[in-house]
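Check out a protein:
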Amino acid sequence: MDGEWSAVAVGKDSTKFRGMLRLNETAADIVKLLAKETTPEKVLAAMEKKYPDADRNEIGHSIADILNQLSKEGLLKE
């Protein structure tokens, strides 16, 4: 939507979560990576490449936080 990313539940998951999450740029990048078959290592590597000055542990924590939030809201299937 006009340069912004959002996440919404679809199908039967929409009965659990009836809202929308607005995603910042980092979260949107992670969701785009998750739309393809990937691994945690590939997600981390992609984010390290995009943010080369960021600390690897900080990137890993940010990814974990975003994945936990998406999972908590029923927007992520493992």
The beta strands are 5-7, 21-23. The first helix runs from residue 25 to 34. The first strand starts at residue 5 and ends at 7.
